Amino acid sequence: MGADHPTGTTAVDDPLRHVTVREAAGERDAFYLAHLWSRWFGTEYEHGDRYSSGRLPYPLCRVAGWEVDAEPDHLDAYGVVVEHDPSDRDCVVQIGGGLVTIDTPAKTMESLPDGGFDAEALVGDRNAWLWFGVVDESWRGLGLGRRLFERRLRWARDQDADMAFAFGWEHDGRTSRPLFEAFGFVPVERFQRLYEGDRDVCPECGALPSNDATCTCAGVVWATDL
Fold first, then answer.
1. Residues with Cβ within 8 Å of residue 152, at least 6 apart in sequence
2. In whole angstroms, what is the distance from residue 109 CA to residue 38 CA?
3. Which residue has the higher pLDDT, 87 or 108?
4. What pLDDT, on the 0 to 100 scale, is given for residue 200?
5. Which of 89, 106, 189, 202 could pair with 115 as two cysteines, CB 3.0-4.6 Å apart?
6. Quick check: 107 and 73 in contact, CB under 8 A?
7. What is the per-residue pLDDT for 77?
8. Triad 26, 87, 18: Cα angle to 5°
9. Are 14 and 20 in contact (CB under 8 A)?
10. Domain ranges in the chain?
């Protein structure tokens, strides 16, 4: 961390003085990101069912450093983790993370939901997907989500992505709209129940595999050119 601190704070009381946002690398980081992806989105994987299976979804295999067969539609992947390294403990705690991939036009159109927009006209040659960015509840409101967002977008630009896409989650009046707009994203379309039918885990609306419910949260498809 640098020497700058939030207004009205000192190096002593700055809550972020022992927090680091860095590139995810290695199996520990990859499985932590898989845990976030599964917990918040119920993601099931081509290379395994859940993170506890000892397997990973294809993009996170790259983060783990595993050698896997090439996936032609996923061109590249990049993970970010947020860590807290308190001075009074001999351990580092992961408190957030995010993932972005670079995908082909075909893969991007496959990932976009059916809506009232022309997906073929919208996608670029190299498309960045910001799949998720999650910060532990006790660490929210400190700008860490923004740093996760910024770090992934910077990487996507460095990979010559020409478009970026993301799903914005909305629930009970809470929205990620200010964050997306701050980075130049525009709403493509809002879906009243974006995840219904294919997302069986949602901590917000109570969907769990054990109760056969699916997420009923609203969501927005966001996009921007890079």
1. 78, 80, 98, 99, 100, 128, 130, 133
2. 23
3. 108
4. 67
5. 189
6. yes
7. 94
8. 60
9. no
10. 19-225
- Separation of alpha carbons 71 and 54, rounded Å: 20
Alpha-carbon gap, residue 148 to 191, rounded angstroms: 25
Mean pLDDT score, 98-105: 96
| Across 103-108, average pLDDT | 95
Apex 8 CA angle, 5 and 11, nearest 5: 40
pLDDT category of residue 196 using cuts at 50, 70 and 90: low
Global pTM reads 0.84
pLDDT surpasses 80 at 55: no
Whether the CB-CB separation of 145 and 89 falls below 8 Å is answered with no
CATH code of the domain occupying 19-225: 3.40.630.30
What proportions of the chain, in percent to the nearest 5, are helix, strand and coil? 30, 30, 45
Average pLDDT of 128-150?
A: 94
DSSP 8-state assignment for residue 27: H
Pair of tokens at residue 20? 């680091």
